[in-house]
Amino acid sequence: MSTFSTQTAANSSTSMAPTFLLAGMPGLSAAPSWWMIPLVSVYLLSSLGNGTILWIIALEPALHHPMYFFLFLLSVSDMGLVTALMPTLLGLAFADAYAVPAPACLLQMFFVHVFSVMESSVLLTMAIDRALAICRPLHYPALLTNGVVSKISLAIAFRCLGLHLPLPFLLAHMPYCHPQVLTHSYCLHPDVAHLACPGAWSPVYSFVVVLSVMGLDPLLIFFSYGLIGRVLRGVGSSEDRWKASQACAAHVSAVFLFYMPMILLALINHLKLPIPQHAHTLLSYVHFLLPPLINPIFYTVKMKEIRERILKRLQPRKVGFVR
To answer: Running DSSP on this structure, what letter comes out for residue 63?
Structure first.
């Protein structure tokens, strides 16, 4: 790895690099073979959990409501995100493959950010859905009709693709004046754009994209829960408050798990705190890999309808005999 890194630094030019060099796992580069086990386990468990959520929502007509449809989209984004990350991670674990061809790197970058923006958009939509259900319960069915839900889904798709579709093409034709050495074990567009020559406008575009999603969405989610909290304070029955808080518990946990590592990384970088690279890498892995693994557990445990229908589907059917 060190020889390749030196050669890459020496041969950097003002054209698109044929390869990018991944950073690898800090402290595990000498023995990558064992950490493929937790990686494969995370992928299989994430696929199993999110696949179960998708399966039960698709099969149960009683779950064909906006709240569960948004949960369906959340599981799609979780499965897409963890699948997009795995090629380079497993390549490092199985084959010690640090060099990634530029087209493959840009393709991974595109899908990682599309599914990341999709997850953020769905979490925001779920927060608005909960706010409408609690603050306007009588108007909720009329506000979130099937037509409105379809339009929201199209808006999420347009937001994901519209923001990130130009990025791979811009970066593919960008002049590069720095060694093509990345700081993560996967390709991210701020990381790739940082390697471009001074004066290139792609880093500015990348910053605007990140700020428009990861900065705006948490604020709107916080505002939605502020409205929910104000309504719950006026509810006389403690039992009603408990039921409403339980309905939001899984979503609050998912929001905290997705945004908190990213916010911590932003604060560390902004304040220039002396945090070791291992901590940066760990927070990055938590941000991308933990939500797809934990979200299905949150929603299965906290949402009675999901849990009961999964158990019902898994129970063996009794076959009776007519005499």
So the answer is: G
